[in-house]
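---------- Forwarded message ----------

FYI, see the Beta-lactamase family protein record below. Original note from H. follows.
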Amino acid sequence: MTPLSARARMHSGGVGTRHADRARASERSARTTDRLTEAVTRLARQHRVPGAQLAWHQDGRTHGVAVGEQEHATGRELRSDSAVPIGSVGKMFTATTAMALVADDDLDLDEPVGAQLPELARGAARLGDRLTLRQLLSHTSGLPSSLADRDAATSSLRRYVADRIAHCEPVCSAGAGFSYSNLGFLVAGRLIEVITGMSWFEAVESVLLRPLDIPATFVVSPNAASQPGHFAAGHTVNTRTGEPIPVAQTMTPALAPAGALAMSARDLVAFGRLHLRDAPPGRAAPLDADAIAEMRRAVPGAEPFGMAHGWGLGVALFGRGSTRWLGHDGTADGTSCHLRVDPAGGCVVALTTNANTGAAMWEDLVPELAAVGLDVGMYTTPLASARPVPLPTEYFGRYVNGGTEYSVLAARAGQPQLAVSGEVYPGLTLYERGDFAVRHPASDKWIHGGRFVTDPRTGRIDGLQTGGRIARRERSPS
């Protein structure tokens, strides 16, 4: 038997070790907070971002910093709980709500959605017979990114799916490849409405936001009788003067499942912790472990060229090998927001900014995060190192994705150029492996433009992929 005095010494040593560990963790946390506060303050000033929030969950604790204003030159402070329009990060919320219904056996990932949405069978493509929820959430549905019409401004989600999406022309066959699609998430949102009997707004709040204790703030009202919640203004930065100019949000109710949420960086971290299987104290998690694991499993054939290393169900995958973060980036009107989750390390990072220059701020912040142990697996598409090659004649022409038109044209000086809905990117340079670079018209810097896509059956160029979106080659009748 261990003598009492020895047991006391062992107990005392254990307590002392735990106190020392907590002290070191507290000191490390303080150093991290000081460094990231300085970085956010400096980078917001450098990129002319009126307001920014950074929150992170590390070593079991959540920390955050908020700097600047909700709207430029108003003096209204951007607090740690201020809501910021998060744009496409909201797609993770739509996907997570849908997966909660899958976990309850109310939806099936691999059954055609036509049984729940018979209106999708009305178009010539009979989309309801082919599309599955897995394809919708992984951007392998073949649906265009968006449509060029004004119907979304006056339509409900139900009418927009039935009258417009059901009749749209796919950019590729369902399941054939990755093409980022807002329309796919509108269909997923409509599925949520049919299964729950609620509007998308009500379902997201009831199934997801309320259980996570996240305030329900939307940038658009679900109906004319209600008002959207208060949120920070977005800004576009004048490239000549550097002055941030407030802009209005143009989201409509019909497009809400693709990005109508607004929230703080701390709220995003609370949501991100769900994907760690880390529910708030005293609350049941909306998803079980199996559904969470399914969401972060890379979907075969989903190659999000220009966006991420892989794609799961509603989540982008960043990094390779043993380090794998998941998350999403989002831009609303004049905002740029980013969420990253490390399931293996138990860490979450979220940045919200209320300026269109926030994406560049995020890129500069990533090294600072890595220096404090939050290496978020940044995806970059570097300029090709392969040898430039002449652009074959067959590459010239018109490519279409829904409402966006891409034209590969010959310039007067002999160097090809890319026009995107009329905006010209000069100096298109093709490389041996099929990708290409262009000059950005505003900064005159070389940027990775995308890649050309070949039909494996014929070997002919049948599209181009830029920003994760495939544009289908339009051929003349001849």
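H. also flagged this: Confidence is low (pLDDT under 50) at residues 6-10.
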